[in-house]
Design a protein that fits this description.
By secondary structure, the protein is mainly α. It contains 12 helices and no strands. Helix content is 79%, strand content 0%.
């Protein structure tokens, strides 16, 4: 076996931590921080970003360490570092442990214990629960969505000194619901690979349910978005703006539900990639407008 050395390890570590996914997790955590009440402080913000990135990297490293025999069977994952023998399993495990300890430690020392607990929960749920459930039950998608809901709650807790109000749970709910149209559409495209590797996915065993669940949670984005103005976090104009963004993804989810084929699954998947950044920008923008209005009054 030929393992990576020197500068090659930077790329290997990035792949092992799923760099793009980790960056996405950090951005959703920062969105939770930005939407939370109170003034933002640069120090805690940066430590939150670093701690979140390390926790996400740890979870992803553990996930690949556990799933290496199955990653090698799937065309989508066979080039991951462990599957292609670019890094020793013990090295990857050590990296996961180090990143997890540093991430949780940074959040505990420089942010607050609630944020640290949420970071640890993210690692445990993703690596210890979701990863195991993928080969046992289609309920793994709900566990994975719960993992995706944690980062904005973590960001909120970081901004508020550990206080978790209703707004934190709504932000977590937005990320939880979004996972289903996003992942279920992707899983439909990859169902042959998942079946080959022995994963229990809705798209493989119950494709109609897979499409129905994607639509159900796409529709849930409407009341979740409406909850933020009702809680006084954003101004009422968020209702109008978010309805346009949510409406397009819901339309794509409806089309996927009617005709669950490759074309409609790709359309829903790409709409979800555009949907979430736009919605989070709208939420942050309308939160800022709400605060300006309060100051004027």
């Amino acid at each position: 076996m030929c393992f990576a050395r020197g500068t090659d390890l930077v790329g290997v570590y990035t792949d092992l931590s799923k760099g793009k996914l980790t960056a996405f997790v950090v951005l959703t955590s920062m969105a939770g921080y930005a939407v939370a009440p109170g003034a933002a402080h640069v120090g805690p913000l940066l430590w939150t970003a670093l701690g979140t990135a390390l926790c996400a990297s740890s979870a992803n490293a553990f996930n690949q360490w556990i799933e290496v025999p199955y990653d090698a069977q799937m065309s989508r994952t066979r080039n991951r570092p462990l599957a292609r023998h670019a890094i020793a399993p013990g090295h990857a495990l050590g990296l996961g442990c180090a990143a997890g300890a540093l991430g949780v430690g940074a959040l505990w020392v420089f942010v607050n214990p609630v944020a640290a607990g949420l970071g640890a929960a993210n690692i445990a749920l993703y690596a210890g629960v979701y990863t195991a459930m993928k080969r046992v039950t289609i309920a793994n998608t709900w566990a994975g969505s719960l993992v995706g809901a944690i980062p904005p709650v973590l960001g909120w807790a970081a901004a508020t000194g550990g206080a978790l109000g209703a707004g934190a749970w709504v932000m977590g709910g937005v990320l939880f619901a979004w996972q289903f149209p996003h992942f279920n559409s992707l899983a439909h495209t990859l169902r042959a690979d998942y079946s080959k590797a022995g994963y229990r996915m809705m798209s493989v065993s119950r494709p109609r349910l897979n499409a129905r669940v994607a639509l159900r949670y796409a529709l849930l984005m409407f009341p979740l978005s409406a909850a933020l103005p009702l809680l006084g976090i954003c101004d009422p104009w968020l209702l109008a703006d978010s309805s346009i963004v949510n409406g397009y993804m819901a339309y794509c989810a409806y089309e996927f539900w009617r005709r669950p084929d490759a074309r409609h699954s790709r359309k829903l998947f790409f709409s979800s990639l555009v949907h979430l950044p736009l919605l989070l920008i709208l939420i942050m923008g309308h939160k800022h407008m709400q605060e300006r209005r309060k100051k004027k009054n």
